[in-house]
Amino acid sequence: PTPRASACPGLLRIVPALDGGICRVKLPGGVLHSAQARAIGEAARRYASGTLELTNRSNLQIRGVLPGQEAPLIDALLGAGLGPRVASADDVRNLLLSPAAGLDPQARMDVRPLASQLLDLLQDTPALHALSPKFALQLDGGEALAMREHPHDLWLAAEDDQHLLLGLAGCPLEAPLARIEATHAVELVRQLLLLFLELATPEQSRMRQLLADITPTELLQRLQARLNFTLQPAPPANGQPADSTSRAPAGIYPQAQSDLCMVAAGAQLGRLHAEQLLALAELSERHSDGELRLTPWQGLLLGNVPESVSAELLAALGELGLLTRIDEPLLGLVACTGSAACARGLADSKHHALHLADLLRASGTRPQVHLSACPRSCASARVQPYTLLASTPDHYQLYQRTPEVPGFGRLLAPAMTIDEAGAWFARQHPAGTPDA
């Protein structure tokens, strides 16, 4: 079928940009098998520029799709099993897991079987195909390697191995709205999504927009009327945020399974080249289980790595140009594609991010900064501690995240160059102080 109109790229809907078409491949649980990685790498070389982007929802984009090559690219990806089981469901396969799901020793539940059931629900329920391509779910097993600041429309978090907590529209994990038995999760999500579609106006494509007109309490009351099980009261809010990694992971991490570990690395500003992906596929087969787990920090993780070869694998990732040192400043920087490839971009944010990383490397400071070439904030779903928002091709506004001010936060400087920003961070966060 012809994909519905949307500005969001998909596998079946390639959208134009200044550097060519963009094709987004959604990966179940963020997992890319080595054979699929090879298929993407070869297709990106043949039908596009060879540039790949890792997204903040653990998906992958092919950039620079060549004119007239859209159909063969799509065919190649579908032939590798990378498309939806139901064509009209491509847009709604938005379910985020920890890249360490099933492996993290701190997890309270292996959520992968439930994730598979929820993806089946999204694909096999035609009514749910009307959800916005941006409408997203998160399933949290309690892993330490988890992105919990991502503002999803609906999340389920493991309280223990039998119970899940429910949250909506980015409400924090420490303040859930209800508690259910894990066996009821699929039916809960089914009825909640159908209820959302019934209540939401055409302009209300996200849960937060609906909750501007109806309170969470009223929504749950309506949901309860549709369920044949009871929504249990949520445990009292403890006011303490859930433990999770504060920076993009890089290095060697312990695994729940004995004698095995996980090895993580970042992609430089979220980008890989096809040649790197092909090499990663080979490394995953030689040292791991043949799976590449993409992360919401725009990096990747290889699990089930024998401890005896973990250092060799980490070194090989570094030789490929991936970021393997946790003190690398680029791990704390997020940048959109910028004016080099986006008509809305006011500045070349990726180029400026590389320059800022050089300045931070020299000063020894390691802030977490989002460089955005326009106010849409495409590269970062969560608000970073600092945001540099382009105002001219060479100047940025500097914001600091604060709970009292919505959006990017408090404006600290109305205009500064990247050199001035680097000097400001060096003064505010001298080397050796905790990350911002």
SSE topology sketch:
Layout: E1 15-17, E2 20-25, E3 31-33, H1 34-47, E4 51-54, E5 60-65, H2 70-79, E6 95-96, H3 112-124, E7 137-140, E8 154-158, E9 163-168, E10 178-181, H4 185-199, H5 207-210, H6 216-224, E11 232-233, E12 251-254, E13 260-266, E14 271-273, H7 274-287, E15 291-294, E16 299-306, H8 310-319, E17 333-335, H9 349-363, E18 369-372, E19 386-392, E20 395-402, E21 405-416, H10 418-428
Parallel strand pairs: 6-7, 7-8, 17-18, 18-19
Antiparallel strand pairs: 1-2, 2-5, 3-15, 4-5, 4-14, 8-9, 9-10, 10-11, 12-13, 13-16, 15-16, 19-20, 20-21
Helix pairs in contact: 1-2, 1-7, 3-4, 9-10
Low-confidence stretches: none
Number of helices: 10
Q: What oligomeric state best describes the polypeptide chains here?
A: single chain
Mean pLDDT: 94
Strand share of the residues?
15-25%
SSE class: alpha+beta
Strand order of the largest sheet: 6-7-8-9-10-11
**Distance linking N and C termini:** 47 Å
Integer-rounded radius of gyration: 21 Å
**Major sheet description:** 6 strands, mixed
The total count of strands amounts to 21
**What share of the residues lie within helices?**
25-40%
Overall geometric form? globular
